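Tutorial, part two.
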Amino acid sequence: PPAGLLQVVKQCVRVPVFVMIRPRGGDFLYSDREVEVMKADIRLAKLHGADGLVFGALTEDGRIDTELCTALLAVCRPLPVTFHRAFDMVHDPLVALETLISLGFERVLTSGCDSSALEGLSLIKRLAEQVMSSARCVTWSLFPPGGGITERNLQRILEGSTASEFHCSARSARDSGMKFRNPNVAMGASFSAPEYSIKVADVAKVRTLNAIAKNIL
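Running the prediction step on this input gives:
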């Protein structure tokens, strides 16, 4: 997010705010220039009150980019760091998990290397068991499963994964307030979001999901 958004969010909420460092969409194989941007974004996020950082980086053969992650972690410290869903694109998730533990990541955001956390539930549970069985993981947080989580499947996912945290968008579409609309022009690609529809956090969904989680956890 831009620094302005982070500043305003920090003024409005009491919960810890973790900032994702991602210079572009697409894969997680970054160029030297993109790495420069990521380091600059981390410094700005820390300057404007981020409580933690979130990023992920891979090598061309689908492994954790240990050299880059080590460099970025050094810039992030002393803040806690989460490895995001780049994890779902790794060649071997069990080996990748061991790498992330050794590097010092506190959390991993994953859908179990599948299209959603529900489909990847068995792997999420296996990864969580691997974390709990490791003597090196005293401070390691359980996986916050992410991907396709809704009020209809959250209970099953939390119970099946033993996770103590979860991630979801919990949003809905809000119609634009524009009265005049030019149907001949679009500001984005044809497959992007509708021009006059805005995605916003849905308070009702957040409250429902929180209630479900509190009842289980």
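Helices lie at 3-12, 32-47, 66-76, 93-103, 121-133, 154-161, 203-216. In part three we will examine how such features are distributed along the chain.
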